[in-house]
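Thread: dinuclear copper ion complex, take 2
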Amino acid sequence: MTDETSSAGSPGPAETHEEGWIDPTERNWFRFSIVLLVAFAVAVGVAGFALGFQVPGDEARVDPRTVADEAPWSDRIDNPVREVAPGEYVVYMIARQFRYEPNTITVPEGSTITFYVTSIDVQHGLKIQDTNINLQIVPGQVSKLTTTLDKAGTYPFICHEFCGLGHAGMFGTLTVEAGEG
Ligand code: CUA
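Output below.
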């Protein structure tokens, strides 16, 4: 017994393709996706290796309730910038509602600065204009990043994480002095 009713009246089979055939539109989307992946990989590579953008390491854990009174952060106002080697500096910074401590930093041209930043209340951000410094500041965690400042000038920094009503007033200045270094 043959089944004639199922095919009778229905259109014939669509055009057939050999094994492995891909619709041209789909093939183009595959190609586009691959190009996109390669482009992203190159962008990440250039940013990371050539431009110095690094994911801040989870440097250390601290107690946000006490860290402000503990060395080396306790000395942040009196001694905001420490020279650890010729031309190499470290800054221990506290972010809090709604200021940075310290909020003015001065180093000679050509310096390398390593920032160790933590928050004692809520999440903040630290973005220093025209540098690779762009950090998420999380209470209890120390964010660390290094930058080299070859050009004299003023580099404003701002909080880029909404942290409360005074957020917009949370900023500071990094000054790189010409001449030395
Ligand atoms: Cu601190 Cu916004």
